[in-house]
Write a structure and sequence with these properties.
8 strands; about 250 residues; Rossmann fold; alpha/beta
Length: about 250
């Protein structure tokens, strides 16, 4: 059985479909953030997708999603400390502290993380994940001899789609006959009128990786405005000040 971190988004759903196509038994895991605006949309997408996948691939089986609230995760200090040291060198998302702690709490020794191929336009996003290798079980993992903090934080994970872009996944899903299911995914963190907003980070990534067809005209317009604002740092800082009521820009 494969343990998969699943969000109902494009990358992790592609991996779920890939495993189901291969006839694999899958245990999905999902960490809930109660404050996330998209929580209900993500849960709805996962329920629909899971039902469709189990109908289409009776030789496989996707178990009920194992849910945990982020507030219920015991945060282990070694992961916090490793993240802090890594963050002093390069960007690493704080969510990995919780995911690593969840694995230790649940005694999971191998959880699949569906992180897509890092393109040239994303070269500053988690460059640490360029240091991977294929292990004896044919899993892509952090390379031996890597930074100790990198191994501490990521050693219990594998990265099965790190060699694929979103367009690669779309092409493979078409070859497997599951593109319709893949397009049932939800990725936006700040839904607008029950549709992807176009301006949150997952929307920006999805648009820039070639999946423009997933967005309305309004969402695309919001994306273009957001990129324009970002390209003018002074305007960006001013708008953040208005939004957050603070001059502490370093915290955003």
């Amino acid at each position: 059985m494969i343990h998969l971190l699943w969000t109902g988004g494009w990358d992790s759903t592609f991996r779920l479909l890939q495993l189901a196509y291969e006839g694999t038994e899958i245990q999905p895991h999902y960490i809930q953030e109660k404050t996330r605006d998209s929580l209900q949309k993500e849960m709805q997408a996962m329920n629909k997708i899971r039902q469709k996948v189990n109908e289409k691939f009776p030789g496989s089986f996707v178990h009920e999603v194992e849910l945990i609230n982020q507030s219920e995760i015991i945060v282990f200090p070694e992961f916090t400390q490793s993240h802090k040291r890594l963050l002093s060198k390069e960007w690493v998302g704080s969510q990995y502290i919780y995911i690593a702690s969840y694995c230790k709490q649940k005694n999971l020794h191998s959880l699949e993380l569906s992180i897509e191929k890092i393109s040239d336009s994303q070269r500053n996003v988690m460059p640490c994940l360029r240091k991977t290798e294929i292990d004896s079980e044919n899993r892509r993992v952090i390379a031996e001899g890597s930074d100790e903090d990198l191994l501490c934080l990521f050693n219990q994970f594998s990265f099965p789609v790190l060699h694929l872009t979103k367009l690669d996944m779309l092409k493979e899903s078409e070859n497997m006959g599951v593109a319709e299911i893949l397009n049932m995914t939800w990725f936006c963190h700040q839904p607008l009128f029950d549709e992807p907003c176009g301006s949150c980070n997952p929307c920006i990534s999805t648009l820039e990786e070639g999946l423009k067809y997933r967005f309305s005209r309004l969402a695309i317009a919001r994306y273009e405005i957001k990129k324009l604002i970002i390209s003018h740092p002074e305007l960006h800082r001013f708008l953040k000040r208005l939004k957050y009521g603070s001059t502490d820009y370093a915290s955003y």
